[in-house]
Amino acid sequence: MQQVNIHHAKTYLSALVEKAAKGEAFVIAKAGKPMVSVIPYVPPGKQVQRVGFLKGQITIPDDFDRMGDDSIANLFGGTP
């Protein structure tokens, strides 16, 4: 995340706000110490959905819960 000092933020506030509105959050610092973070505003009811955001983009093999059984059994000196 980009960090800018207060003087820079005051000078370039419009440009920084435009970047933040597009998703590029930044931190305003005073004497190198972070003071506040500026993030894009999300109106109520327009929250970003996180659960299921990869739906249809990944696949899980049918044998996922059995993958590596032989190797694990061999590590413990037994057979599956």
Labels describing this entry:
80 residues, alpha+beta, 3-stranded mixed sheet, 28% helix, 19% strand, elongated
Q: Summarize model confidence as the mean pLDDT.
A: 88
Strand neighbour order, sheet with most strands: 1-2-3
Stretches where pLDDT falls below 50 for ≥5 residues?
Answer: none
Work out the helix count: 3
The SSE string, one letter per element, is: EHHEEH
Q: Tell me the overall shape.
A: elongated
Radius of gyration: 24 Å
Number of domains: 1
Strand content: 15-25%
Binned, the helix content reads 25-40%
Structural class: alpha+beta
Number of strands: 3
Please give the alpha-carbon distance between the first and last residues: 48 Å
Largest sheet: 3 strands, mixed
Could you characterize the architecture of this molecule?
The chain has 80 residues and is of the alpha+beta class. It has one domain. It is 28% helix and 19% strand. It has 3 helices and 3 strands, in the order βααββα. It has a 3-stranded mixed β-sheet. A hairpin with a 2-residue loop joins strand 2 and strand 3 (33-38). The longest helix has 9 residues, at 13-21. The protein starts with a strand and ends in a 5-residue tail after the last helix. The model has no long low-confidence stretch (mean pLDDT 88).
What would a concise description of this structure say?
With 80 residues, the chain is α+β, with helices and mostly antiparallel strands. The protein contains three helices and three strands, in the order βααββα. It has a three-stranded mixed beta sheet with strand order 1-2-3.
